[in-house]
Amino acid sequence: MRVIEAACTVKPTMNQLGAMASLAYNVGLDEYDDDKPEGLGDSSLLRLVNAAQFGLASAQFCLWVWANGGRSRVRGLERRRIAEAAMFRYGDYGMMP
């Protein structure tokens, strides 16, 4: 959680932080300063959080539902991302799988 907080230039709420931690658990943090776009650290979600565009940021969770190099949309990931977006935006922890 500290790594995620450190990446944020705007202080996230606890529900936003929890949702980003849940996403990062699956996709990684990418806390390295390199040219490879990967994980939460390089995501448009984090850029939008840092721009205080929280509504737009919550919509970014639905983009992380692909497997096999982006060839397969995974229903389980869709459900998880919907739950994470609800946690991020509304503090709704009830839908977490």
Q: How would you describe this protein?
A:
The protein is mainly alpha-helical and 97 residues long. It contains five helices and two strands, in the order ααααββα. α2 runs antiparallel to α5.
Would you identify the regions where 5 or more consecutive residues have pLDDT less than 50? none
Mean pLDDT across all amino acids: 89
Question: Which descriptor suits the 3D outline?
Answer: globular
Largest sheet: 2 strands, antiparallel
Q: Can you write the helix and strand succession as a string?
A: HHHHEEH
Structural class determined from secondary elements? mainly alpha
- Terminal CA distance reads 20 Å
Q: How many H/I helices?
A: 5
What share of the residues lie within helices?
40-55%
Radius of gyration over all CA atoms, rounded: 13 Å
Please provide the count of β strands. 2
Strand arrangement in the largest pleated sheet = 1-2
**Beta-strand percentage?**
under 5%
Features:
51% helix; 5 helices; 97 residues; two-stranded antiparallel ribbon; mainly alpha; 4% strand
What's the gist of this structure?
The chain is 51% helix and 4% strand.
Topology at a glance:
Layout lengths: L1 H6 L6 H14 L16 H7 L3 H6 L6 E2 L4 E2 L1 H16 L7
Helix pairs in contact: 2-5
